[in-house]
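User: I'm writing a short report section on ligand binding and want a predicted complex to refer to. Could you take this sequence and FE2/S2 (inorganic) cluster and write out the structure as tokens? A short remark afterwards would be nice.
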Amino acid sequence: MTKKKFRIFRFDPNKDKEPYFKEYEVDVKEGMVVLDAVIYISQMIDTTLAVRWNCKAARCGSCSAEINGKPRLMCKTRVSDLGDTITIEPMKAFKIVKDLVTDVSINFEYAKKIPKFNPKPGLPQIWQMQQISVERAQEFKRCIECFLCQDSCHVFRNHKDNYYIGPRNVIKTAIYDFHPLDSEDRTEFLDRSGLNFCNVTKCCQEVCPEHIRITDNAIIPEKERLLNRKDPLYKLVSKLKGRDR
Amino acid sequence: MNPEIKKIDTDVLIIGAGGAGLRAALEISQANLSCLILTKSVLGKAHTVMAEGGIAASLGDVDPQDNWTVHFADTIVEGVYIGNYRMAELLAKEAPERVYELERYGALFDRTPEGKIMQRAFGAHTYRRLCHIGDKTGLEIIRVLEDQILYRDNVKILDETVVTKLFAKNNRAIGAVAWSLREGIFYAISAKAIIVATGGLGRIYKVTSNSHESTGDGISLAFQIGARLRDMEMVQFHPTGMVWPEGVRGLLVTEGVRGEGGILLNKNGERFMLRYSPEKKELDARDVVARAIYREIIEGRGTEHGGVYLDITHKGAAFIKKKLPAMYEQFKEFAGVDITKEKMEVAPTVHYFMGGIYVDPETTATTVDGLFSAGEAASGLHGANRLGGNSLADILVFGRRAGIYAALYAKDHDLIKLDDSEVEQEVKRVLDYIDDKATEDQDPYIIIEDLRQTMSDKVGILRDPNDLEYALNKIYSLKEKAKNVRARGSLTFNQGLLGCLELNHMLLLAELIVRAAIERKESRGAHFRKDYPKKDRSYLKNIVFDYNDNNIKMSYIPVPEIPDDLKKYVKEEVYD
Ligand SMILES: Cc1cc2nc3c(=O)[nH]c(=O)nc-3n(C[C@H](O)[C@H](O)[C@H](O)COP(=O)(O)OP(=O)(O)OC[C@H]3O[C@@H](n4cnc5c(N)ncnc54)[C@H](O)[C@@H]3O)c2cc1C
Ligand code: SF4
Ligand code: SF4
Ligand code: FES
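Assistant: Sure. The structure tokens for the complex follow:
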């Protein structure tokens, strides 16, 4: 059996002056993921190591971290794909609670501001929708709220200066916008939410464990909508047509 | 250590932010009452997000012959007649409205060509009945409920906050003490009514599809203030869990794979379900398929890693990627297997707990006043075996009812404040687990892993009386050891402390599971005894546990008889 070294970021804001790294050695088994090793460490070697996880199946989005500098899910990253020393750090875009655990509640604070789903008036009790028209939003609904996209986005990371709700919340807005029976106009909201600062680097799209094409399929169309909104002709046409789809 | 204790008064306290807890919260909020939700995981990450296959509701959008009476009958028959008929009736009647309501909250189900809701076949459902969103149905339910709740001022959520104790006065639930992992402080919560929606206990087993948080806390907490428990022997094994790599052993392979046409083969390439169940084949009830797979494996017809094959390759890559994207992804990422080209290896895994807190069918009231329970933590609906898809329907139908009746109760009753000294005593009990001189052998996870292994090895699909006795003795000895567990560190996100607290619940519930399994000397549904392989009419009843003055009492209660106007829909039970 081979052993690997796990260099893990440690920091308890209540008592540590500065963060430090601690190294643990773990026997590596075939097919093992990084989270297997971290759970082993936190249960059998050092129970003071704080780590957040729940499903261990890449379905809940709890175990986000930076593994060798890349934002990834620990439960979806195979140890065999990495070198002999593996460095694990918390996401840097969020405040640290302890060790690998960050406070992601800010994402919900932003989410609350999104104008909610607002079905068209006068719909019957039972709705009819075609598969083809629900598919666009269904792609975004795969989101497991791991917030790795938020972590990878340079605008969001530095949003103290430039307020930006981040790619996850643009996805959330797009879910409502692309709902075939929605009637709300969220362009004014997006205009206030920093979408203009996004310079389409696609970093968010690259790290998404659900392979959601965040930039191509949500951000760019939403940006176009923002642009069109300022165009008076477009306004008139969309008024006549009801909505822009 | 002198931690902060924050006091909160609320109309209704909801423990659990899975589908049941969130659905209940909506009702409380709509009744203009205040409501506090506590959850061990982060909001939006509860175990429910893992649900894949779908939600059962007899919309008849795909098979127009379907209606509530068929759904009702399927539920009773597959629960092998010890399920509560009234709960099954309510479920079957109310599930369609709960599904349409999700749609009005913004859920986007897969569609039929006519633009209706697509429904897929699932084990032992007479018709195609499971409404789904690819294989992410649970996630969608949580998200749309979350969306409803985020915007409400009278709902407060404290996530990563663990209830450590419930309090009752004169058999009335009055509040709870909780520990916030994130803040490293305690909360003392006084509430007019409390809803336990803490989900199941799969984590008591080593091989399970359940989330980390599914350690049965709420069932144990409620029991300790006097709530009756029922059907504790009924643990469902899902026929198909992953077997390899070791780290994902137990991870669910959705029944949707079989629903969409997947077939089971042994290592000789034989489609063995034709032998066990010539008619329903792969889509027979879970207990039947799970036992068949288990038999193939122990009789030497299993695969290299100790499973059988599940094959869907004949459906073609495009179909598989569209209908089962999460499964495609799961096998590719975790096992390096391309399920559009290769067979999967699968074996049974602990999946669902039919047993749990005894509730009144209409109101979800427990035997403790002011204490309600819904979802996997509650019992009665599924009897001896749960139908796939019925749990998501359960959490919405009875989550809603729990909310309605807890709100009514709260409107009718005054708040009784928690006693400060009792709160302090509880905080002290928790703090006593923290000890910076704790040694390695005081680590709670050593005992937890020992317990989980014991349950998987000895209290499995085919139950042997000697194994059960062995397990019970083992649990008693682990209980002794558990008195010494300690955790180093602070109150902030202390994994070790969480282990100490969960361990006690797991041991108590494991004991009840084994004791009930020993008691039921027959085979029914998920409970299969090697020494009593047949169903026995004299066991057409429910085993219940009560707890008073530190005494656990086991007894039987009769299954309420199905009234004639419903009986006509259900085929009569046969014994041989
Ligand atoms: C992989 C998988 C797939 C499934 N697929 C389906 C399906 O297709 N169809 C179907 O019908 N069913 C399915 N099920 C079953 C179904 O998902 C669950 O039974 C259901 O989601 C349970 O919901 P719940 O609301 O009762 O509890 P859960 O979702 O388990 O939520 C429990 C909540 O209680 C909280 N909690 C627990 N203890 C404490 C404590 N001490 N203090 C504070 N909070 C606490 C937890 O943090 C969590 O928020 C599946 C299950 C699994 C594992
Ligand atoms: S594409 Fe936009 S949102 Fe995504 S990472 Fe780049 S700047 Fe951020
Ligand atoms: S969009 Fe992708 S990366 Fe962003 S939170 Fe959702 S799943 Fe994670
Ligand atoms: S633990 Fe759920 S995504 Fe990793």
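A remark for your report: Residues 214-229 of chain A form the longest helix (16 residues). Chain A touches chain B through 59 residues (CB under 8 Å).
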